[in-house]
Amino acid sequence: MNLSAGNTYTSASFINIWFLTAGVVALLGIFFSRAMISIGMIGIVLLYFLNKGWQQSFKWKRDELQWFMGLPILLIYLIGGLWTEDYSYWLERIQVKLPLLFLPLGFWAVRDIITRKTIDVLIVVFVALCAATALGSFIYYLLHYKEITESYKHAKTIPTIIEHIRYSLLLTIAFFASVQAYFHSVVMTTRLQKNIIAGLGIFLFLFLHILSIRSGLLALYSTCFIWLIIQVFKSGNKKLLWLFPAAVGFLVAMYFFVPSLNNKVNYMVRDINQFVSGKSVNNYSDGNRLLSMKLGVEIGLQHPWSGVGSGDVQKEMNAVYEKEYPEIDQRNWLIPHNQFVYIFTALGFTGFVIFIACLLFPLLNKVVFSDIFCVAVLVSSYTSFLSEATLELQQGIVLISLLFSLAYIRLYSKA
Fold this sequence. Notes:
The structure is a single chain. By secondary structure, the chain is mostly helical. The protein has three domains: 1-57; 58-102 and 284-415, no CATH class; 115-279, no CATH class. The protein contains 19 helices and no strands. The chain has helices spanning 2-32, 34-45, 47-50, 62-65, 71-79, 87-97, 99-109, 116-143, 145-151, 164-184, 191-211, 214-235, 243-257, 259-276, 285-302, 313-324, 339-360, 372-384, 394-412.
């Protein structure tokens, strides 16, 4: 009996160490190496085999189905290949989305073994990485203050370690992860540790305003809004609603006191006016994105039920740019910069409805709404869909699949 218990303990300990190592590698990869992202995610997927996931019974209940909420998205992209002509581009779309199937398998297979301590260590690592890289960008900004502030008038931003839009979303999620760590972490328990994590969170919150990326700020304030609504319903304390005008007032104050944010807003207004007036949006960042959404909708309406195929979006967009917008430089030819529009263009109303159903499914789970980390990942992901085709890039899939799985497994991890 003792030997058996010892073997069980060793097995669980080994799996936790493996999971922690793979998770750290994947998190490091987000900032430093796409290869590391793949290695880390493969390490997590291998847990399915290490823990003999095929021998475990799958329960067709909401809590279990939640792990695979992204699987139908992969399936509709696969089916969309039946009426696709550009199979090279289609294969790229499928390859990017494979983690929607395989990554949850790894998490699901060890859902009853991973400890709360293991998850909380990974959360602290994630927050620390975000804060450290943000500090590097902030120092660079201070050293080149005038040049960078002026560059915000011309669609530039503070240099960041990865693409700035997805980076701002990661910082937003990290901020809320720091809030969770401050109140609920089993590894940040002393007063000093709590002060450190709180300091990192405050820095991330302030830096998001200095960085002034719309996607990040929208995710930040949308998550705050939704979380406060949840707390009002749970506690019945309507006084919390006064935090809404306070948040709006703070954001307005930031507009006047943070030059980078001021310049960013002014540039955005100028770009939108350029698009609305019907003038050329060549070399206008926001105007170009709005045009890509418009073209995506128009192409989708020509194939309303099935779309153009999950591999032909780029080809169809390029054809329209070449024929109707010859003044747009080829380097500015974009896919629809909106995930909802992209899905509609590729897969029509049929794919669009399935996609929306996948997004709504987690919202039916009350447990998800009890955790600010889960809420932050979902809100940040969904708001990013408004201005980016997030799921068409590896880092976007990581944002959805890896971070949500990490947040979700914590809800069921052992204390």
